[in-house]
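Quick board copy: two proteins, each given as sequence then tokens.
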Amino acid sequence: MSEQELQQQIIEKAWSDESFKAKLLADPKAALKEAFNLTLPEDVELVVIEETPSKLALVIPPNPGDTATTESELSTW
């Protein structure tokens, strides 16, 4: 499963399951472990933000020119 497919499954579950969405917003790692048996490394911080019609999120990805960032660091899913 690709990262994009996994993200879509997480979003769809959050849309259909208010309890999961609440846990995902409060404790994303625990919610993903419980619902998808997905464990992220301890040193990875996961921030979940719910967009609304009046609240948008802009994600700035790592700079591809930053030679310190490796492919393995970009692929945490």
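And the next:
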Amino acid sequence: MPTPEAARVPGPRAARLAVVDPATGEPFDEAPDRRPEELDEVVARARRAWHGWRSDPAARTTALRAAADAVETAGDALARLLTREQGKPLAESYAEIARTAARLRYFADLAPRTHRIDDGRPVHSEVRWRSLGPVAAIVPWNFPIQLAAAKFAPALAAGNTVVLKPSPHTPLATRLLGSVLATVLPDDVLTVVTGREPLGARLAAHPGIRHVTFTGSVPTGRAVAGAAAASLARVTLELGGNDAAVLLDDVDVDGIADRLFWAAFRNCGQVCMAVKRVYAPARIHAEVVEALAQRARTVAVGCGLDPDTRIGPVNNAPQLARVEQVTRQALAVGARAAAGGRRLDGAGYFFAPTILTDVPPDSPVVTEEQFGPVLPVLPYRNLDEALTAANGTGFGLGGSVWGTDLDRAEAVADRLECGTAWINHHAELSLGQPFAGAKDSGVGVAGGPWGLYGNLRPFVVHRPWEEET
């Protein structure tokens, strides 16, 4: 198997970027810290490769199927490296790799449909689809492989080439993935570049990039959109979330407690569409708090390579500081930690799984995206009050409603201001569905056929009817 150093990026040996194991807080490897000026040649090569890649749909299908096979073959190495640099339990890393292979297969077999327009005029009008050119895919550290594939699989299937930039916190597994895929894809169809800022900003602003697809925070998303506007590149932005779970008064607390807990704490809470706030009827609020707190107190927290670990560390020191800050702010103004509430002693970026109660509704841990293992549970007295609070932030990625009467729960879910609403579960997506945020949580659509068409532009051909002779 090729090593990460096989990634094809031109230029002399660059400066190096230290990569920290979040379970120890110590560097364990390094990646190239590429200079922004190197992007000119990278993008130029991606554009040259585009001309051949876009012209043969059958070859693209074959290559993407082979790419899925290659990912599965390299699954052990990819999963272990992903856990080492990201921190998540190894089982979750294996699931991320499996999802990546499945996504490649899904898009390999998805093709745009030509559409005939019949409007009564004496012409045949046909809508065909053309690729855009080089695509910039800028990926965060929480799901570096899965989110990369969510961007490059539809882009490649549509006939585009991709320049992929992972987070400087998690560059290694992405570089290894690039090396694995280089064995089955043509040269320069997918190029991985790693480095600190301003590398990502320069990539988003590069005049040779025709589509920028980004996942990350709302402020950075705004900056990416502004940078891409200079060249009028298309943007797809999947931004922050502060998903609310609304529990109805007929909910079976014991029956849903495990699902609700893991909807909030999977990947140490570092999921854009995780449950980040729970609204429970005042009558059962204490029962909900205790059910979640009992799980938080007893769940196994540790190094992701330990097979007994269910929750790993926060990925990086700045994010750990953010989690500590919002938790301290809440406790300082009257909140109580029913479980956790502090950083764990010892090495690494570990924070105790935390359930907060008595939280003021205007506390940042409620109104902002905490992105860590902290969950506030807030009481409500009537459903309108709960929905007003659930919809009362600038975020609109996802939300969920939990109850026994499914018709009633669906009617309540229909009132959530978000892109995806779940009933009695949360943060589960199929490959064939659209994924898009409302309000500040995103621009554009990913997933399913919508993700494919987001990487294409319509091309209309008008041909007159055959004249009678």
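Board note added afterward: The longest strand covers residues 123-131.
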